[in-house]
Amino acid sequence: MGCATGKCFRQWQAHNSQIWSIAFSTDGRWLVSGGDDRIVRLWDVNTGKPVSVFEGHQNVIHTVVFNADNTLIASSSADETIKIWDVQTGECLKTLRADRPYEGMDITGVTGLTDAQKSALKALGAIEFN
């Protein structure tokens, strides 16, 4: 909405599902959005056209934000990661994930575990090769 008029300034058809987060760049030039489709989209506010698509999350995106000089975007997801994106190249510069207690533990062939126990261990970082 326009602050002075209260009228809609621009409307985008941005994602094919629910959007959970949007953020304007500090200079007002860009808008970034993220949501259920696991895609971060960068928009030119003046033209309303998409500029970039950042893909890599494996689950819903909860938050998107620009850094102070608008060169980076950070996105957080239900996949338990934070990704840092380069605005100019679209490259994912870094993926951050908190350490999980069983990260990398190989449970392939382990006997005596129920399916529920295996699922719980995998959620905490364990791996199983088929």
Automatic annotation (TrEMBL):
Presence of the UniProt keyword NAD in the record: no
WD repeat intervals: 12-53, 54-95
UniProt keywords, alphabetically: Repeat, WD repeat
SMART domains (alphabetical): WD40
Top-rank lineage group of the source organism: Bacteria
Record-given protein name: WD40 repeat domain-containing protein
Species name: Leptolyngbya sp. NK1-12
Lineage of the organism: Bacteria, Bacillati, Cyanobacteriota, Cyanophyceae, Leptolyngbyales
